[in-house]
Amino acid sequence: MARLANIEVPEGLIASAREGLEDACARLYAAVAPATFGLICRLIAGRAAAEDLFQETMMTVFERLGSFRGEAPLGAWVRQIAVSKCLMYLRSPWHRARLDLATWDGESPLPELISRGESPGDILDVERALASLSPTARAVVWLFEVEGYSHQEIAQAFGRSASFSKSQLARAHRRLRAWFEPQSARQPCTPA
Amino acid sequence: MHPRVGNSPVANGAEANPVLVQRLRELPPERVPPFDWAELQRRARSRGVAPGRTHDPRALPRRAILVAAALASVVAAALLAGHLIRGAGVATDRERTAGSPSDQERTPRNALPADAGRDADLVLRRAAAAERWLASQPEDEPIVRVSTHLVVTDLEDRIASVDDLLNVERLRKAHARVHALQLERAQLVDSLAQVRYAEMLTTEPP
Question: How far, CA to CA in Å, does A127 sit from each of A115, A146, A167?
């Protein structure tokens, strides 16, 4: 299984897809769709939102295929579009509010954006650990550690400073470490 | 190889757990897409876009691009305004495929594909949450803007009229029609919540 940024597609296939040849478009879609959806699911936790963003991404890819210059693998270009769509979604105040609303019972105070794990020390599951992060922190961790983005690139994508990216990453790692730390190893925060 | 394998500087500090980072990188990079190429085409056509037909912006003169962009933004602004006024709101394609009133009228609820039913339930749950949030908001904003106030009252009127229709259809036991109206109402509530939320953001002190 290939990571999206490494997926290369033959130039001839891209040229045929640009001309709108049905078979070429279908083959190109099949080449990039699984890794594109995989990346979007990592950045956006909700399945419904991930599907919407996947659809938006794929439509944009085919609309803009004419502007792909072939300087990098096609997958890297698709990744740029997918990441940009996901971050735009995460930056939207309405979507952030809706993430909260989806779990709100209407009476208690609005839940925090950062969900809290039930028993971090017991769950040795990297997927769940990742899911415990806030949407922004999860995106920063994934882009930095897995996709190889620099702090500068992440900051640019979020429209923030590089220190925003660094602090999000540092906090996210502290939180992730807590998931894997045995209960006994944790120091109490108050004196005995 | 990943550019940072074995060397993960978190803010140039030592916060990162290398084992955890390695496990993150080992997670499967692919997932089965929710639909295939044919379905993408169908969805694109329903939006008036042809996904197989791409354009090369380099082939167009710069001035033509600027004029087209300006025209597109004017049309988009007009469409958005019209969309809000009509209360069609933010229905996604999945929501639309799950709940077009005419389709629902023709198709009984239990004949819908499983996905459509699930998505429709999601729309209704989201609307219920949005409605709870709306109920927690003050009746009127401290600062009333004429433009948004008109949209809000129009959406509220439309929700009320859908409620009336829902009562009638429930009495007639027209289940498919009731379901379609519920989805329409959910979309209106979602639109209303969006407008009220935007209004709240603009009136909040920085």
Answer: 14, 14, 22
Which of the four CATH numbers 3.40.50.10490, 1.10.1740.10, 3.30.200.20, 3.40.50.300 does domain A1-94 have?
A: 1.10.1740.10
Using CB atoms within 10 Å of the CB of residue A149, give its burial: 0 to 12 exposed, 13 to 18 middle, 19+ buried.
Answer: buried
Q: Which CATH architecture has domain A125-179?
A: Orthogonal Bundle (1.10)
Does the beta-carbon distance from B52 to A21 stay under 8 Å?
yes
Stretch 152-191 of chain B: residues touching chain A, C-beta under 8 Å: none
Alpha-carbon distance of B205 to B186, in angstroms, equals 30
Tell me what pLDDT residue B99 has: 42
Per-residue model confidence as pLDDT tens digits over B121-163: 777 877 887 777 777 776 665 566 666 777 888 888 888 888 8
**Between vectors from CA B39 to CA B33 and to CA B43, what angle results, nearest 5°?**
115
Q: Where are the domains of chain A?
A: 1-94, 125-179
Helix or strand or coil: residue B13?
strand
- Shortest alpha-carbon distance between residue A186 and chain B (Å): 16
* Contact: B52, A17; criterion CB under 8 Å: yes
Q: What is the ipTM of this complex?
A: 0.73
Please tell me the pTM assigned to this model. Answer: 0.57
Q: Which of residues 112-131 of B touch A (CB under 8 A)?
A: 119, 122, 125-126, 129-130
- Nearest by CB to residue B34, choosing from A51, A151, A180, is A51
- Pairwise CA distance, residues B123 & B186, whole Å: 7
Q: Do B15 and A26 touch (CB under 8 A)?
A: no
Q: How far is CA B154 from the centre of its chain?
A: 20
Alpha-carbon gap, residue B176 to B189, rounded angstroms: 20
How far apart CA A131 and CA A138 sit, in angstroms, is 7
